[in-house]
Amino acid sequence: MKFRQKMLLVVGGLILIGTGTWLLWPQTTITVTPLDQLGTQIQPAKTITGRVGSRLDRQQLTEAGYQLSAAPKIKFRITPQTLVVHYRPTLSRQQVARKLKDYRYIGASFQVLNAGLGRYEQNYNQLKSEMDRMRLLLSNDGLHWDRLAVNYPNVAVRDPNIIKIGDRWWIIYTAGLMWTTDFQKWHQVVSPGLNPNGQFQKVWAPEIYRTQAGTYQVVSANSTDGTTFQLYSYTFDPRTGAVAEPQALNVAGNFPNLIDPHIVYQHGIYNLWAKDEQRHQLVRAVSADGITFTGTQPVALPIQSGQVPEGPTELVRGNQAWLYFDLYDQQETFYGVQAVAFKDNRVVSQRKPLQADFMVRHFSVFTMR
User: Fold this and answer.
1) What is the pLDDT of residues 150-163, one digit of tens each?
2) Are residues 225 and 269 in the same domain?
3) pTM (2 decimals)?
4) Which of 41, 63, 88 corresponds to the end of one domain?
5) Are residues 322 and 251 in the same domain?
6) Is residue 12 assigned to a domain?
7) Three-state SS across the chain?
């Protein structure tokens, strides 16, 4: 056999041995948790698999809208590892302000960050506790939403509601109130007044809305026994964030247990949306003064038997509106926020899930232009 042929056989054999050795080389994992500059988790922790001795590739650490504060230099070891990686937003304050001008709507939601949950269906029964963090979203059509990649406050947020008053963006949510002017620095309002003198056991899903007079009110679902809820309206001072003077709303009909209120004032009428906890349906009522609501009626939705809507939000668009609602079933599996077109006091479309890079939960929206 000629020398060249022998060399080719030797080289081929070495390649086969090397390939076989690499394929048989043990694999291990690194679980990565991404945090922004305020220490808030950006996405659920992800587990990356690699071969022992190889380096973690920075391309595996990409997070949309963020850049690495410092690229970690770490190798895969025999034993699994955990790693916290820090990021900063790609956009500056000025670039965020310009970005907002490209969109018509801004929405507020929360993302459940526990690992192992699905993208389109999530069940939390096996979780010891949920990790919920606020998310802001941008859209031009009300259906397709882009995440606003900023530094988020590292506090648990459920059921956030967003509104702009003056130069401040206000976020009110179950258990808190905060504001920002640039989506970089967040200011928490201490004891805003949702539960004066501890008279309520629970205060759920508060929202800020504009009144006929141009002032602002807060509406929420409150319970004195922890089980049955009634709707209340408060005054709201956007100069200080003070919430005061809770007043029970009078909602006509046999609806003794309403939650998730949403009020929109338009054309001289206050429209109230809420969830009827007793019958697991959405209801709608109207009022001239914002306190006494009449004509309370259930809203027929295109959902399956056993599915339950909650968290209604209305986005008026010309002569019709998007009606948003969170959807889950009796096994506590959640399907995220859905949208239907609402016109002439009825639903006129099939439901469509909101499109985003995570499963959007209890949602609010504000029209920027």
Assistant:
1) 999 999 999 999 99
2) yes
3) 0.91
4) 88
5) yes
6) no
7) CCHHHHHHHHHHHHHHHHHHHHHHCCEEEEEEEEECCCCCECCCCEEEEEECCCECCHHHHCCCCEEECCCCCCECCCCCEEEEEEEEECCCHHHHHHHHCCCCEEEEEEEECCCCCCCCCEECCCCCCCCEEEEEEEECCCCECEECCCCCCCCCCCCCEEEEECCEEEEEECCEEEEECCCCCCEECCCCCCCHHHCCCEEEEEEEEECCCCCEEEEEEEECCCCCCEEEEEEEECCCCEEEEEEECEECCCCCCEEEEEEEEECCEEEEEEEECCCCEEEEEEECCCCEEEEEEECCCCCCCCEEEEEEEEEEECCEEEEEEEEEECCCEEEEEEEEEEECCEECCCCEECECCCCCCCCEEEECC
